[in-house]
Structure formats: structure tokens, C-alpha cells
Amino acid sequence: MTGVLAIDPLLFGELKWMPLVIVALKVLVIFVVGLVGTMFMVWFERKVIAGMQNRIGPNKAGPFGILQTLADGVKLFFKEDLLPDRADRFVFRLAPFLAFVPAFLVWAVLPLGGDYRDGNRGLVEWFGHATRVQLADPPVGILLVLALSSIAVYGIMLAGWSSGSKYPLLGAVRATAQMVSYEAALGLSLAAVLLTSGSLSTVGIVGTQDSLSNWNVVATGVVPFVIFVIAATAELNRPPFDLVEAEQELVGGFNTEYSSLRFALFFLAEFMNTITMSGVIVTLFLGGPQPLAIGDWTADIPLVGNGLEGTIWFLLKLLLFLYIYVWFRATLPRLRYDQLMDLGWKVLIPISLGWFLLLAALRLGRDEDWNVWLVAGVSVAGLLVAAVVMFGAMKVSGRNRQQGAVY
Amino acid sequence: MSQYLPVVALAIVTVLFGALSFGASRLLAPRRPSSAKSAPYECGILPSQEPPERFPVSFYIVAMLFIMFDIEIIFVYPYAVARSSLGLYGFVAIVVFSVLFFLTFVYEVARGGLDWGPLQRSRNLESAAAVVSPERTTTTTIRRVGTEGRGEPGEAA
Amino acid sequence: MIAQAAADSINVAQNVGFGIIAAGMIFAALCVVTTSNVVHAALWLVLVLAGVAAQYILAAAEFVAVSQVLVYVGAVMVLFLFGIMLTRAQIGPEKGLNNRGWAAGIPVAVVLLGLLSWAILDAFEDTTLPDRGPTTTSRISDDVLHPYLVPFLAISFILLAAAIGAMVLARKD
Q: Would residue B69 count as lying in a domain?
């Protein structure tokens, strides 16, 4: 039954004209909003970072320079499209699409608004049809996000290889290793969220977070949230994890040989990914379109219907994360590559796996009516043993290295 | 399945957008190829070395470990979703599975599969003292370049 | 009556979709073995594996489809491409990719095809897909942790062996 409930009622039953029109409208609106949002994000980042560095930032094109990105984009249309001699022509042309299309598709499964109060599961009424403010809600929605981000790796890897030039190749190899490493951390910290929500569909995940204490950031105990944000930043190749395009070492990284519109597509994909990843974090940990509610009290935005209010809450939370990403960039220096890999593999992955098992044990104990403190004590003892083993392994590898056992 | 049709539609719209933009750019952009433009970009310096043929094996090990963790993730998710109906039995199964994984991981770490970059040594104070010794001056450490055939510095050309 | 007709039309759409995707997969599979560039071959293989995922979606097994993409497209093929890129991926066509005795592979392939088709036809005959709606994730976890628990734990041992093997190969002791 839950399987049927999770499906958008619009797409259920016979095909009719009106639902098709609504779906087509949704596709177009999401596409346009995605593009405009990316332009806004570029402007926002430049403006905020300028403020943090005591500069003015873009201020010529349009009010507050808001049209600057549009001007830059139009400029790229008029630039010569270079195809390096030694490039693999087909793969070189294919790679920007592999980066750009998955970045857009993540939008499809994010709940962008809707009424989630009183167990309403995000339904709103449009043109006399009950529907969701979301393009699609497959039962495995959140896994689709992971699958898309694993396809996006191909865009970067193939762009670097097909350029036939050394800096892009180095950048691509670095990027791929970094992205797959942090994808593992991302996936494991996501498991903690699934434990509390018991559903893979984004609507189901948002549905359980109906008050502040049920928001997954609180319900999973903050640790998975912190790991997810760090891993997401690395997955996006944003500072302080932007080793992929470390200008000082690699010229421009994987997209060095790209120019004109092909470069624009990579650029768009990068900023689009920042927005969609913030959206994923909001959906998973901060209740998505759910209003802020503490106990019985709900922060109600006056004069706005419940359906529209969801979108406003979503955008507010989204802006918070966009700001945090810019803040990271302005504040944190870039990691060294060995620090990056050590952080991912030796810190984030073991902690997220251990935290998941701890949460599972606590919930099992609650179901079976065991003593909470006993369960917690035994689990923590088990995790400590694992930590000691892990430190022992790191010590052994360190000693072997000192003795010159390098492979 | 009908759930996926809008996603496919969005994908088609995106690809069309990209393709149309390329079309527009092809009409608008200049086309003046030259050998310098189509050479690999190396900041204006002529390429003197081929791109590296082989990379450190650590990259390969990372990809290998990622497959393992992907499989772990794939098995952990169904458990997480259906935890309440699986009870103690399911929990024990997933813990055994995770412990086996963890042991594999620990083995990789202990064998140095995840060590990166050159060895970090704490700086030896004696050698640091040698670096700042009075014997080291600009005349001993800096090699003058581009002076071939100019004769000695003080000498008239 | 109407529900039956709707179900039939869905089945027709499913069969048409199956045919189109299967044809694409066969084409991609042929390209894997005929292309003269190793990286291109790997990319065609990605297409074949993505086609398998699409078939799973058509069969309403969404979790399996996403797992297919995550594990095969996202991890195994990345390892493949890494292996190629990190050693010898030259750009442009390569010579000498074909084994000299490649013709001997044809009868083997034909026999294998016959054997597999016979096994599948013999096992399923005219069984139709039960119309029980999409496979839910909790059903999968029930299956994995109850009837298939032993294979599930065997997987972790296989991976343990694989990881140790990789380490032994990678290190020069």
C-alpha cells in the first residue's frame, strides 16, 4: 500500500490530457528554474565572497550586477570552440553532456514544496488535479541521486582523458579517486537517515520530519549530517576540496582544454550540482518543505497558503546551505591530496559505518525493550574495539612506510 | 514505470538545450584555427614531456575498495529501510557482514593500501642548522642562467 | 474489463520497450568487441550495463536497477577505466587489439548462446511475469536476510579474498 501511496496521483490510472499538460509544464518550469537558479548562484557566490573579502563584486550589469552571469554566458556563445589536435573527438564532445545532464536530473526527485502538514504527504491541488510540487517520486528516489552522481564522475573522468593533455589527465585521475572515495562516505551516512525514515522515496523521507526533534539532523544525532555535508562538498569538488582544478598545480584541471560553450556546460553543471546537493541535504536532514515546528508550535508564514509555504521554507533552507558553501570557500584553505584521502577513508567512512550500527542497535534495543544504557554501553564498547583495531592498522602501515616498504 | 517518464522527458529537454546551444554557438563563434590553439595547453611553454604513462597503484586500490563499499551500501540500505520487521536476527546478520567488511578494510589500511604521497618526516634539527649555515650564500646556491658566453661578471664584454 | 485492457496495453508497451532496449544492447555489445580503442570499448560496455538497468526498471525491479547502476556503472566500470587510463590508454585507434585466433571464439560463443538459451527456455517455458506490482525494497531485504543469508555472507568472504588479492598484486615485496 505504501508503494501506491508514494506514487504521484497524477501519474496513476489512465492517461488523460490535463495530467500530461501539467507534467510537461513541470518539466519546463524545473528546467527554467534550474537554469535561472544557476545564474543566481554564480552571482550570489561572487557577491557574497566579495563582501567577505571587503570588495564590491559584480555591480555593473543590471541592479546589483545580477545580470553579470547572463552577460558572461552570452559572451561564451561568441567564443571560438577549440578542439585539441590530440583529443579523442567523440569522447571530448560527449563529456560535457555527461556532466551537465545528471546535474539537472537530480531536480526531478527533490520535493520543491507542497503541503506536508498534518500527514498531508505533499499533495497540492493544481488545475483540479491533486499532485506534488516535484517532478517524479520513484520509490527509490534518493538512490537515484546517488546513481546520478556516479554517472557524473564519467563526465569529469572522460573530459580529462579525452583532452590528450597532461594537466587535464592528472586533474581527472585525482577527481575520480576523490569523488568515488567520498561517494562511499556519502552513501554510508545516508544509511543513518534511511534508518529513521524507513523509506527510500524523498516524499517518505520528508514526511517523517514533521517537527524539529524529528528532523533527521537531530534524529540521527548530528554526526551523519556533518559527514554528509563534508562528503557532499568533496563530491562537488568545491573548496576546500577543489584539488580537481587547483589552479596553482593543474592550470584548470580536467576542463583546461575546453572553451566556449563546452566549458560553459561544465561550469553550469558545477554550480547546478551545488544547488541540487544543497537541496538533497535540505531534503534529507532539514525536513525539506516542512515548516519549522517545535512541539505543538509551528512557525506559520502569514498570508500564504500551506501549499506555497512549503516552497518558501525549502528556498530559505536552500539559501542557508548555499551561503555555507560560499563561506567554506572564503574561509578554508585547500587540503593536500594525502590529507584529503586520509580524511575520506580513515575518518569519515569508519565513523559513518560505526554510527549507523550504533543507531541500529539503539533502535533495536528500543523495539525489544532492552535497557537503553546497557545497549549503548555494549555498542560503544564494540565501536571502541573497532577504533583500536583501526588505529593499530594505521600504526602498522606508518611503521612499514618508515622502514621503506613502498610499493 | 510511468514515474520515470517525466525524468526521461527532463533528460531529453536538457540534451536538446545543450545541442541547440552548440548549434547557436557554431553560428555565432569565429573559427580561426591555428596550430598553437590546437596544441595541448601548457601555459605557453612547448610540451617537452609526454603525459604520464603510469600512475601510482593507490588510485587503482581506491577504485577497488570503492566497489566493496558500494556493495556494502547496497546491502545496508534494504536493512535500514526494513529494520523494524527484521528484528534481532537481521541486526546480527548485518553486523556480521559489516565486521567482515571492516576487517578487509583494516587489512588494506595496515598493508598501506591507502597511504598517499611522500613520507612525512619530522624535521631534523641538525640538518635544519646545516641549511642556515654561513657557507650557504646566494653565490653558492643560486645558479646564474642565461650568462653563457657573456664572460665573467666583472669582465668587460 | 477496463483494468484488463489497461494491463494488456502496459504489457505491449513493456514488450516494445524491451525490444528497443535489447536491440540497443546487442548493438553496443557488438561495438565493444569491434571498436579499435580500449576506452571506447569500455564506454560501449557501460551502455550495455545501463541497458540491463533499464530492463530491470521495465520489470518493475527498481532497487535492483539502481543497484546495477551504482555497482556496475558507478564502481566496476570506473575501476576498468582507471585500469586502462592509468596504464596505456592512448588516444585514437590501436592496432593489435584482436587476438590472432579470434575466429576460434565464434563456435565457443555460438555453443554458449545455445546452452544459455536452452537453459533459460527449459527453466521458464511459458511462465509469465506475475502481476504483483513493483518489488519493494523491504521485500528485497526480507529475501536477502532470510532465504539467501548464506550467499549474502559468502559475498563478503569473496570480497575479502579479492581485496587481499589486489593488495598482494599491487605490492612489490
A: yes
